[in-house]
TrEMBL record:
The family this protein is said to belong to: Belongs to the hemerythrin family.
One of the Pfam families matching this protein, by short name: Hemerythrin
SUPFAM superfamilies in the record: Hemerythrin-like
Keyword Ligase annotated: no
Sequence ranges assigned to domain Hemerythrin-like in this UniProt record: 13-126
Example of a GO MF term: metal ion binding
Keywords per UniProt: Iron, Metal-binding
Protein name, as recorded: Bacteriohemerythrin
Amino acid sequence: MRVEWTDKLSIGIGIIDDQHKKLVERVNAFVDAVECRDTRKIEETVNYLIGYTIQHFGAEELIMLRNGYSEFKRHREEHNWFINAIYDVNKELLDQGLSDERLSQVEEMLAGWIVNHIQVVDKRLAEVIR
């Protein structure tokens, strides 16, 4: 399930939109790696997502704190859920690998979460900050 970057995903904060584009690119890289059955690329993409989401979420959270965003804790909990989910996927990869069914589930989780989080939660943040 590839994600196409469109204006619907733009929240209007340049640095955050640029980071979201990179996340979308990596979700799509994961989908491509799964389609090619490239285990090394799947592992690399998952590792990248762990590091990059931590960095990106940190930037978002700093913006929230600097602006006194009242929904900070709930927003941060969503970030933490996603980081934990990616960590669990990475652990599964290292421990036993992922079945085709599980890879499909991970694709759907990644794409669905990213799109929903940006379009709903991050857009709400942008509206409050503006």
